[in-house]
Amino acid sequence: MIRVLIADDSAMMRKLLKRILEADGEIEVVASARDGLDVVDKAREHHPDVVTMDVNMPGLDGISALQYIVNEKICPVVMVSSLTQEGAVTTFEALELGAFDFVGKPGGTVSSNIEAVAPELIGKVKAAARLKRSRRGIQMLTRTRQETSRPAVNARPQSNRNLKAVAMGISTGGPKMIYEVLPLIPPDINAVMFLVQHMPSNFTATYVNRLNNACKLEVVEAQAGMKVQAGTVYVGTGGKHINLVKSATGDVMIRLTSKPDHLFIPSVGVMMESVLEIYQRKTIGVIMTGMGNDGADAMVKIRQAGGVTIAESEESAIVWGMPGDTVKKGGAEKVVPIWNIADEIVKAVNK
Predict the structure, then answer these.
(1) Which of 26, 197, 267, 274 is 20 to 30 Å from the Cα of 296, by its Cα?
(2) pLDDT 10s digits, 300-329
(3) Residue 171 appears among annotated catalytic residues
(4) Is 81 an active-site residue?
(5) Computed from CA positions of residues 98, 118, 130, 325, in that sequence, does the dihedral angle turn out positive or negative?
(6) Is the distance from CB of 100 to CB of 125 less than 8 angstroms?
């Protein structure tokens, strides 16, 4: 059984979260807390496998309580955040301080329709528990952006010749672990880059802004009509697929669509196949931590077309779903831990 401690200042939310989690059959809620001090005390007492933490709580808030739990290496924390701009900023602060991942409350701070995100919540709680029980333990979560940011070298200057396209997909655990990759890519890389991270639409702008501040590359939210340029990362926004089209002048432009219907919008697979259609064998596919199999079939197509494909290894993946399915289907030419992915991207671009 996975032992969970729920922290939320709303009695109704504590009750709903407990019902959702225990309905799974593999999760037991060992305690609940109504504020930051209460959750820190109960985390020390019960030593749960996972804490679900509301951001906004009276007294000691969720961010401060998180820091105690992370610093004492008690267990992973999944933040449960309201889908607002303020909630997004606070959530990404929590991720930078060591939170495992987050789930957005679809109805605000007190969300009676929290059932809508039940599969996501259960999946992330289970993934967090697996991380705690793995040989890597909590160390993967306590690494900071400063520790992973270092100068990248050996990239060639940008040119219009032999321009490559890097199509990257990441999901569960991604908002934190992407800092093991993007900040290490040099700004003069001769490639255009696309990133799909599964997250709510109102979190994308904050996510992009923080990534841009951490990276040497320019990181932007993909917008319809943008002309793609080397040295830029285009991040998919929630609710829209990234598609590419070539203009009459030969420029590659971004087109956003809500079709095809997919479990995830944006979809890693839809983006990758669109990139492959334009760039063919100059496509570099990268698949990292995440539940499910989004992108695995597209990685097979990229490899069959002569492109380079890189999958995160089980050694580092918080959830080896998306990369694991890619490996099983034969879509991964290279399988490496996440801390080696930036180097592999640079090698593939310079090939």
Answers:
(1) 26
(2) 999 999 999 999 999 999 899 999 999 999
(3) yes
(4) no
(5) negative
(6) no
